[in-house]
Amino acid sequence: MPTHHEEDKTSQDSLTSLYTRCLEEIRRRLDQTAMLTADTFQAVAYAVRDSLANTSGVRQEDLQQVIDTMVRRWQQVLTDSEQVRHELLTPEAMQALAEHGVSLLAHLAGTVKTLAGEVESRLQRELEYRTGTVVGSGNFFCTQCDKEIRKSNSGPLPPCSRCHGTVFRRRV
Fold this sequence. Notes:
The chain is of the alpha+beta class and 172 residues long. It folds into 3 domains: 4-88, no CATH class; 91-126; 127-170, no CATH class. It has helices at 4-30, 38-52, 60-88, 91-126; strands at 128-130, 134-135, 138-142, 148-151, 155-156, 167-170. The strands form 2 sheets. A 4-stranded antiparallel β-sheet has the order 1-6-3-4. Strands 2-5 form a two-stranded antiparallel ribbon.
């Protein structure tokens, strides 16, 4: 003969199994619903209750208890989420969100500025020509003293005749 503790455990397992079964059926039916409201959830939960009411091995009291628990929990979730929504819509919360947004944008702008500076530096280095580099014809200026060197044909760049600098840029 089962002990009272074993009967309670079996009853608890049965309720857990029934709860899981109801939850799966409610989820399946809600997947086909466009908008989830308290009324929709309650209607679906009661429809699941009615469809499982004639299932063998399901006690009506247990089924009603499970469905009532689910409906109460869903209503509590909606109440809590509505409270959070109202708290988020206060002027103070909106101001804090706006300030946080501005702070994020400022940080992003600073990051973009830093990255743009790094790209500019790399590109500027790509535009530099060193003494001995073979270049086509054109005008080049020394990056140290700004003296211009005119090349009429391709060949290596000589050092600057004024300051002996070795880095040049093409004059555009």
